[in-house]
What does this fold into?
Amino acid sequence: MIRLDVQLEEAMLRTTRALIALSAALAAAPAAAQVRPAAEKPLALNEKQYFSRRGLDVLVFTNEYNGMFFDEKTAGVEMIHHGVRTATGGAVRLSPTPEQWDQIPKVVERKADAKTGTIEVTLRYEAFAFDSRLVVTPDGQGFRVAVLVDKPVPAELEGRAGFNLEFRPSQYWEHTYLVDGRPGVFPRYPNGPVASLPPEKKIRQFEGHSTFDLHGHRGYVDAEPIASGKTLLMAPEDPERFVTIRSLAGELQLLDGRNLAQNGWYVVRSLLAAKTTGKVAEWSVEPHTIPGWTRTPVIGFSQVGYHPSQPKRAVIELDANDKALPTASLVEIRTDGTQAEKAKVPVQPWGRYLRYDYAVADFSAVTDSGLYFLRYGQQSTPAFPIAKDVYERVWHPTLDVFFPVQMDHMFVNEAYRVWHGAAHMDDAVQAPLHEQHFDGYRTGDVTNTPFEPGERIPGLAVGGWFDAGDFDIQGGSHASTVSTLAATWETFRPAHDQTLVDQKLRFADIHRPDGQPDVLQQLEHGALQVAAQYRSIGRLVRGIVDGELHRYHHLGDGSTQTDNRIYDPSLAPWQVEGDRSGTPDDRWVYTDATPFSNYMGIGALAAASRSLRGYNDALAEECLALARKAYAEEKARPAAPAPQGAFGGFGQAAELTAVMQLMAATKEKAFADRFDELVWPALDRNAAMTIGLAARAIPEKDAAYAAKLRPYAEKYRAEIDSLLKQNPYGVPIGTRGWAGNSQVVSWATTNYFLNKAYPDLFGRDLVTRGLDYLFGTHPAHNLSFVSAVGNRPKRLAYGNNRADFSFIAGGIVPGVLVLKPDYPENMDDWPFLWGENEYVIDLGASYIFLANAAQEILAR
Ligand SMILES: [Ca+2]
Ligand SMILES: [Ca+2]
Ligand SMILES: [Ca+2]
It folds into this structure.
């Protein structure tokens, strides 16, 4: 009943907003096409080097294509339309609907000219020695974009090179378009048209790989236009999405990239004029804006709720044109269902961070258990509890669902649903030499193993998890996941058992207890794979991954990525004899050797050996023996060059991890001495990187150690203070190409260990703040970043089920990506941006640890 009230209020608010928008649009509707309302300022270049006016920003190569992941849909000409980045990829492109691994242009030069108010970008396709210039000029409420060439388009690119601009499909679903007056509805699901073309027409993809599996047929596929004409009106019925595009030379095509790749966007495209120089394409683009538009405030709060004794801060994100209201209310939903204002708290302006203004409403004073929601102006948040047990179950979906779903080499069932069959039973063969893989792996001159390229490395079809939204086994993330699960067991001993795991039958069943703690069963599953790697080659592998791009991008049941049969070259492709096949699809093992990754693996084995004792003694023994042997071998190798600078100690920091785990596992003096030898110089080099590990070792050491460590902790605490001032959320927010939830969790976890050792220096709030951030107190929106956890969690993400616009319960997404120069983004209607939405296993394990840690310190 109360929920109904809340929902009703939200629905009314939405309707009111829509009505205001609609009436504004109606008032402006005739003007949108012809006369412009005088009150609206024209688009203009701002000091941050992008074009801006109220309701519209146009970015021109503020963000570049990435040499590592190629087309991430975060580069080129882009539009932020009423606060939403609806368009990207405005650039000269070589195919109608470019895929992630298609050739991307290099930015040779970018000039933002404050005098003329234009931005000019020179783009180059090295493979074709093809240069073009993109000139973007404000034009009234919109802009013009022209492509110029000094030399004609190369002959082999005639009819192929074009100017493309891509629109996010989910923003245009349930909307219409008009092309030269002819109406159409944006396709909800890709339904063509496509054409099969002869292979000689195909433009080479990254490093000669192919996203397309010919299966013995010759043709490859290109998307064909859904519509074409001179003038395209996109979503003319929706004032927030309405864009008019006119081609001033040549035709416009509207295409649907999803026909080739599920992560494709709608593409508007004009072919470049051939055999001529100067202007070879030109558009006028006029995005409609709602006069006086102001972005709805985002009320950041924890969708999970709060422990009574923890700080409770809502962070309100405001449009630059908005002004903070003086107060916000905490409304209680009482036990009889009625509502009453529990507290009115001041809204304290915090200031500017990136492009928004922020304000903080602190309602920590309320400590009564109950159900609440926040009211700010006309806006109400979803309801949330204040209760002692809010963290008790938040990590269960991660352990109960996310981890089982990620299990490789297992059949995974949940009630009536099979998530996937036993995958990659044909693992694995030594990767070829001199190979640059599309997922970042690389091989050099030698294999570093007794195996020849292409030769089977035995024993690897066991244990392990799909690393992320893809299906590879990544050595580093496995080592760290195993270590973290072991730490979770050792620190908290969670007996939680909701999953059956049968290694003999390779069968996992979700929501079915089997009398064994699930943390140990997952730890065992990871340890089985890491131990297998050390057994076969004596080292942690970099990765076990599909060697061909057209299988690597696999979506769906992981057990259908390969044929699960051992490759037999005496058979023809697609020929099958028993458990052998003629299709060379067995995964490749990348075995480049670095002390860093070896030490990570050694640490994981030593950690696993401790936790597995009493559960799987044979595996525990073997893990420790393998770790000792590998450590001795690594030490016997010639020493790596001396570390340089603050981060130069990476290799030594890794040895420190291994030594700490070996010290804890063996209690031997030699490891304790080596630990002392390494830890202090590492702290002197980079305290922030080492302090967590050093604090973790306190239980293994004496009081003198803790006393000696204290000044480092004090120094680190002072660094945190300055960090807390950088943004209103009080956690470190990363600004790299992969969003920073991992850093937030690891930061909060370090604070947990430091809180344990030095509670006078490190308050509990430095731990819970990390979880508040994950659960909704963050920029861009207020959804919980943990799928299925909290009142409004991420409903779609870049899991291996992303093609279904779905989620995996308990998966944690990377979070808020800060696009240059100032746009925080986490798409909640489009799962395909991995930097924002891809689940990874090591973050899953770290989150389980942190949630247990919060529960423990709050119960103290
Ligand atoms: Ca991967
Ligand atoms: Ca179990
Ligand atoms: Ca196979």
About this structure: The first strand starts at residue 44 and ends at 45. The two ends are 36 Å apart (CA to CA).
